Amino acid sequence: MSRSEEFALVSRVALLGDGEAFGVLVEAYRSPVLRFLLHLCGDDELSKDLAQEAFLKAWLNIRSFRAAAKFSTWLFRIAYNTFYDHTRARKPSVDLSSVAFQLEAAAPGIDSSIDFARSMSILKGDEKSAMLLFYMEDFSVKKIAQVMDCPIGTVKSLLFRGKEKLSAYFKNSGYDR
Predict the structure, then answer these.
(1) In sequence order, which residues have a C-beta less than 8 Å from that of residue 148 and are 6 or more positions away?
(2) What is the pTM of this model?
(3) Rounded to an integer, what is the distance from CA 92 to the centroid of its chain?
(4) In this structure, are residues 60 and 138 in contact, taking their beta carbons and an 8 Å threshold?
(5) Greater confidence, 91 or 152?
(6) Measured in whole angstroms, how far is the alpha carbon of residue 175 from the centre of its chain?
(7) Fewest CB atoms less than 10 Å from the CB: which of 69, 79, 89, 116?
(8) Which residues, in sequence order, are CB contacts of 114 under 8 Å at separation 6+?
(9) CA–CA gap between residue 70 and residue 151 (Å, rounded)
(10) Three-state secondary structure call for residue 173
């Protein structure tokens, strides 16, 4: 969707409360938002709930959207905040870094069941978010900084650390042989 089409739809929603125009925006961004949230939380049902909540927040707050950024950037920021609000509201039951250590210790050599989700579990929350936005959603570093509300240098550091951790994880899992 072009930026001008996006702006026209957002304008119709903000000025006229046009539900059909918002439906077009939801259809355009449903899959990327769901994919992003699914990779963050790892739970299909929870990702659907969080996506629904993010779209509801977007609908309720669309008048606060400023066209300085793309609508998608604004929407992913809402989705990102919705996930972290949910995460903060509940106490973590497991420390993911200890899970990753246990997984590595339990599977010496090449483990064919290692998948993307398992490898991502070794990353901290912000590293995971930056990696997903960069590699899965093809966001630029600048756009990720807007979504995560942090400096560009921080995003670059998160991506660097994430790549280093994943590289070490796969090397230790025998994938470098």
Answers:
(1) 77, 80, 126, 129, 130, 133, 154, 155
(2) 0.68
(3) 19
(4) no
(5) 152
(6) 26
(7) 89
(8) 107, 173
(9) 18
(10) coil
Q: Assess contact for 148 and 130: CB atoms under 8 A.
A: yes
Compare 142 and 91 and report the one with higher pLDDT. 142
Query: Per CATH, the architecture of 3-89 is what?
Result: Orthogonal Bundle (1.10)
- Structure tokens, 104: 């590595």
For the cut 70, the answer to whether the pLDDT of residue 82 exceeds it is yes
The domain ranges of the chain are 3-89, 96-172
CA–CA separation, 76 and 72 (whole Å): 6
Give residue for tokens 């119709």: 12
Confidence band, pLDDT 50/70/90 cuts, at residue 94: very low
CATH architecture assigned to 96-172: Orthogonal Bundle (1.10)
Q: What is the pLDDT of residues 8-49, one digit of tens each?
A: 999 999 999 999 999 999 999 999 999 999 988 888 999 999
